[in-house]
Amino acid sequence: MSDTFGSGKKQIHIAACCDQNYLPFVAVMMNSAISRLSGQYNPIFHFVGVDIDQDTLSALKNEVEQKGGELISYQADELSFKDLPTLRYGNSVYQRILLADYLSNDINRVIYIDADTYVVDDLSVLWEMNLQGNPLGAVEDLSKSACKTIKIPRHEYFNSGVLLMDLEVWRRQGIHKTVAAYAGQNAHRLKHVDQCSLNAVLHKKWTRLPARWNQQASVYKAYKKISEDCGYSKEELREAIQNPGIYHFTGREKPWLSYCFSPVKKEYRSALSKLDWARSLVPRESLRQKLEALLSFRKQTQYLIRKLFWILNRMHRN
Fold first, then answer.
1. Residue 114 sits in which domain range?
2. Which residues, including other chains, have CB under 8 Å from residue 178's CB and lie 6 or more apart?
3. CB atoms within 10 A of CB 21
4. Among 33, 47, 67, 92, which residue is least crowded by beta carbons within 10 Å?
5. Residue 75: strand pairing partners
């Protein structure tokens, strides 16, 4: 955590994994992280790519460097997870498990962030958090169903979309190998293959982070029904809604699609539109998809209310 460049700035290590389909969105995540980061830190991104062509990878590297970051890329290990189910996520879903192997041994801490996220606060605050000797810090998965596959209570089950990882502990205990082995033996029965594997191996061995560092789409439902086995208080969930650090677009509501009702959707799409090199990689929507979003009146109403509160909160903070 104390490593510095010659400039005297501290290093902060951020990891991401995806295939070519999600590359534009990982670029938006990286740019958003850089733009909010304290000037005392230099961001180093560690990117594990699956089936990404060299020209596109070079474009991502140039994008990050132009914004003031550094990008180190790694060839994904696909053999360790050969023939395992990936559901709709692709092989990249397993790669976060092996970050302790990918990153050099002199890097002892990393923040892993999913591609379908948008950073709106200074990651150095998250980076400096105390893990109390645990292998990782995470936010509880606020979905009621995700935890059922491995039969543990919701408040003991974390979402793997944002992870603060102590790689020294991972290497010393061989956690990445244990999780990979568990995934290999059990992936065919798991709903969320990598996430369930991580939770099974690290049950009760993780540090709870404030919910604002992984504001999931289900935070609104959890806030309304706080009594249903949620480990966060109503006040903590309200803070996650009003003052998020990272938006995580879990489920089907992605901000590059019309069917998304996040208050930062417009801001996200503006950031995405500035990536000229990635324009051809963003999937085109069908008319049916656009109409579905337009005709979702209840969702549209919720969106307008959330947007209003988002604007008011921004005005209050400024």
1. 10-317
2. 201
3. 16
4. 67
5. 49
Domain count, the chain: 1
Burial (CB count <10 Å: 0-12, 13-18, 19+), residue 97: buried
What's the pTM? Answer: 0.90
Residue given tokens 């995580």 in the structure block: 248
Query: Which tokens sit at 242?
Result: 């009003």
How, if at all, do strands 70-75 and 109-113 pair? Answer: unpaired
Residue pLDDT, tens place only, 82-134: 777 665 556 788 899 999 999 999 999 999 999 999 999 999 999 999 999 99
User: What CATH number is associated with residue 222?
Assistant: 3.90.550.10
Q: Is residue 130 part of a domain?
A: yes
Contact between 133 and 153 (Cβ < 8 Å): no
Within a domain: residue 162? Answer: yes
Q: Is residue 3 part of a domain?
A: no
State how far the Cα of 208 lies from the Cα of 217, in Å rounded to an integer: 18
Output the six-digit token pair for 167: 């790689």
**The token pair that represents 314 in the structure block:** 């921004």
Which tokens is 203 given? Answer: 């049950």
Percent above pLDDT 90 for the chain:
67
Structure tokens at 69: 């970051």
| Residue 150: C-alpha distances to residues 27, 164, 193, 207 (Å) | 33, 22, 11, 19
- The span from the CA of 133 to the CA of 110, in Å, is 15
- What one-letter code names the amino acid at 289? Q
